[in-house]
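User: Structure tokens for this complex, please. No commentary.
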Amino acid sequence: MTESPHPHSNPDCRAVSELLSRVGDKWTVLIVKALETQSRRFNELKREVGGISQQMLTRTLRMLERDGMVTRTVHPTVPPQVDYALTDLGRSLAVPVMALTEWTFANLPEIHANRAAYDGAMEDAA
Amino acid sequence: MTESPHPHSNPDCRAVSELLSRVGDKWTVLIVKALETQSRRFNELKREVGGISQQMLTRTLRMLERDGMVTRTVHPTVPPQVDYALTDLGRSLAVPVMALTEWTFANLPEIHANRAAYDGAMEDAA
DNA sequence: CTGTATCCGTCACGATACTG
DNA sequence: CAGTATCGTGACGGATACAG
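Assistant:
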């Protein structure tokens, strides 16, 4: 946990920021969740996640594979079959992510109430 | 933890996704970190975070305020003085975020190694 | 089936100038 | 000091067509 006057310029903090961006992107968590219980084929994932384009599924899987979060196994059959599975690293990431998820569920009512109050105050001012 | 064939369309899961995006954006975590120990004034925050534009600082603070993560206190002095502070909600969010941060530090070497291996394999193929 | 290539719209973000 | 207004840019993400 390095200290720096400008967290931004610190390489370690940039790494954390980068990881948070990955987790915060539109599809990563949904894909990891879909792989949580079992390995999946490409189109299985596409159906399971729902609403994702082929392009984004491919891109996100490549990033996850590069970081060692998922493995990609090609079976040289015809038609081709590719299985994606979580690695231990990917599964271990799911733990703190789940903590954030549970925090969200626990505090969702309060957040919604806060927003309603804020928006109400804003339109009073307007 | 609601079940749905298409997580995307589930309002609870969208809320989680939204929260992850907020945490995953470029500045939120850095601002929360800067407010962790004490309340800060606008330009104090700007200096502390480092590299953020006025516009993004304002926007991010507004979002955090709307969600009830920070309070905004205006002192009617001249020149004007505005203090930002974390709420209990904001502080409680910091807990699971820190868990993710620590996971990152713990697994950074492995991730870097994975990337190097992946990139190496790629340029072999090329 | 499992991708890659291409095009395109949107929006987050940055820089700058201006205001109370 | 603490913002708001405006404009520009690039990355992100979707749709579609094509390929092995």
